[in-house]
Amino acid sequence: MAHLALWSFLLLAGTQLALGRPQGSDSPPELILKPGCSESAMFRCVSPVISFVMSADGQRLMKIRKSGAIQQPDFEKACRLAGTTAGCMNTWIKKCVPEDAGHDLHILGQGTVDLLNVCNEPTSFDEFKKFASCAEKMNTTMKSCGEELRAKMPKTSGEFNHETPKRILSRQNLQRDFCCSIQKYNDCYRPNMQNVCGSDGVAVTTKLHNRILSSYKCTDDVLSFCANSIANAA
After folding, report:
1. Model pTM?
2. Residue 176: enclosing H or E segment and its boundaries?
3. What is the per-residue DSSP string for 147-212?
4. Rg of the chain's alpha carbons, rounded to an integer?
5. Domain count, the chain
6. Domain that holds residue 62
7. In the record, which residues are listed under signal peptide (predicted)?
8. Cβ-based neighbours of 144, under 8 Å, separated by 6 or more
9. Cβ(216)–Cβ(175) under 8 Å?
10. Strand residue runs (E) in the chain
C-alpha cells in the first residue's frame, strides 16, 4: 500500500527533477525565504532517510520489499521514518517559505503529511501487501511507463549541482505539474491492471491513487488541464 506513500516526498523531489524548467526559459526565480531561514535546515530533514537507505537495515528492507516478504514491524518502521521526514519538511516550509511566494510548496508539504496518515489506518498493512503484490506483477509495465513519462518531460535547465534543489523548489506550477505526472503515470499502467492483478489489485491501487490526488489537491480543473495537455501532446 505504501509503495508510493512511503517515499512520497522523495517521489515529489524526483518528479520535479525529471520535469525541470521548460527549455529556453529564463533563470528560475529565487526561492524566497523568511529571515533567519536557510535551505540547509530543509535538507537536514531528509538526512535520516538517506542514512537509513544506505544502512544495512535499509538495504535489507529494500530487498524484502521487492520480494513482497516485508513484515508489519518493518512496514511500521518505514512509515514512521517517512512520516517524521515529511513532518519536518512541512514544518520548515510553513516556517520559512512565505505562502504567497511558495503556495505550491505549502500544498505539497501538507499533502505529503496528509497522504502518509494512511499509515495510521488499521487496514494499511493489509492493503500494502495487496498493492506490493500487484506492483511486483506490474513491475515491467510500471518501469516502462516511468521511463516513457521522463522521456517526454523537458530537461532541467542548467547543470545538476548544489543549486538544483533550489531551482526545483522555485519553479512555477510545481503542484500542477506534480498532479499531471501522477495522472499520466496512472493512465499509462492502468489499462493492463485488471488482467494482471484482478479486482483486488485494481481496488487498492485506485484507492491509493485517489488518496494521492486528494492529498495534493489535484482538483478536477487541474486534472482537466492534464488531460488536455496529454491530448495535445498525442
Report:
1. 0.79
2. helix 174-189
3. HHHHHHSPPPSS-SSTTHHHHHHH-TTHHHHHHHHHHHHHHHHGGGHHHHHHHHHHHHHHHHHHHH
4. 18
5. 1
6. 2-233
7. 1-20
8. 188
9. yes
10. none
